[in-house]
UniProtKB/TrEMBL annotation:
It comes from Acaryochloris marina (strain MBIC 11017). GO terms for cellular component: cytoplasm. Coiled coil: none annotated. It is found in: Cytoplasm. Its main location: cytoplasm. The keyword Oxidoreductase does not apply. SUPFAM superfamilies: GroES-like (SSF50129). The keyword Iron does not apply. The lineage of its organism: Bacteria, Bacillati, Cyanobacteriota, Cyanophyceae, Acaryochloridales. SMART domains: Cpn10. Pfam families: Cpn10. This is Co-chaperonin GroES.
């Protein structure tokens, strides 16, 4: 079986899904305590790198997404599918799992 080489540019989400690059986890607490890997929480903020064409309506038309590439978003803690490409961490999310756009 042939190996498939994936990169961010070759991944195109389907439907109302978005591909989010995960922001780095906090390395230390506000008090200066350095956190080990096991104690770090999964970040909930990331930047959208790719968006799908949108969800199909009952009449067959596409409904545009409220987010676009380059938006920084806050998403649900346990949402989506974690994907690792080229040493970077990404999450494939449905648009409904996005809570807010962060400025």
């Amino acid at each position: 079986m042939a190996a498939i080489s994936l990169s961010v540019s070759t991944v195109k989400p389907l439907g109302d899904r978005v591909f989010v690059k995960v922001s780095a986890a906090e390395e230390q607490t506000a008090g200066g305590i350095i956190l080990p890997d096991a104690a770090k929480e999964k970040p909930q903020v990331g930047e959208i790198t790719a968006v799908g064409p949108g969800k199909r309506g009952d009449d067959g038309s596409r409904q545009a997404l409220d987010v676009k590439e380059g938006d920084k978003v806050l998403y649900s803690k346990y949402a989506g599918t974690d994907v690792k490409l080229g040493g970077e961490e990404y999450v494939l999310l449905s648009e409904k799992d996005i809570l807010a756009i962060v400025n």
